[in-house]
Amino acid sequence: MTSRGQRGDALVPVGPVFLVDRFPGLHTELMGLLHGLPPGDWSKPTACALWSVKDIAAHLLDTALRRLSYERDGRDPAPEEAISTYTELVAYLNRLNADWIAATRRLSPRVLMDLLEATAPQVHAHFRSLDPQARAGFGVAWAGEESSPVWFDIGREYTERWLHQQQIREAVGAPGLTGREWLHPALDVFVRALPFTYRAVEAELGASVRVEIGGEAGGVWTLVRNPREWNLFAGEDSNPTSRVSLDQDAAWRLFSKSLSPEAARQRVRIEGNERLGEPMLGALAVMA
Fold this sequence. Notes:
45% helix; 288 residues; single chain; 6-stranded mixed beta sheet
């Protein structure tokens, strides 16, 4: 299901991650969580900016409705204003999200849950209907891609849905979905941000950075410098130029901008060439 990323593997170029079949189970976990919330929990603050638990649930509904409208039904997703930079794209998406959250604060939790239940099977069926190797309607911008294969776009959608559910779980004190079944696929997609993270980092040809994420859901990946860019591999280089180690909890928080730079330095271990390891502290696999 996911690319190999275990200690001791030979270096293998990372391949596609096919996650369509994971969405129904992830949705079941979400609805079981939401249906069990007492009324007071819906207004609890989360780690997601100024959003409450209810706001995150509403955002998940928004992403589902946009998928169906833009991709399945062919509604033109073009913004009203021209967007030419990454910063402008982030600002535009933030405005879209804020407008939706403001409107859905009028809705009750029950209405939100009913709408989530109604839309999820349609989204899952839409994902199953797509050719994973075709070009997606949107590139994965946090990986530096203007055009991405469908499997990567769906993988990005998985990470967003896993992350937002995790934020709800932390806000209400529910157990996290941090076992290998749920978290490893997210990490396997998150690490695809690393070649873009390192795009401006100069190094000798063949220099390598081994990234080891510890824990049940973790793995080992290696960045290798070629003449023009950095390439990502699953597995480890036996003699890397730099070694970066962190546990799985620190890893998902780092990639999702949930760790401050100071906290990241405390939780990430860099050995060997520190200059080549330090860019990992700024890795992001979310739009920010």
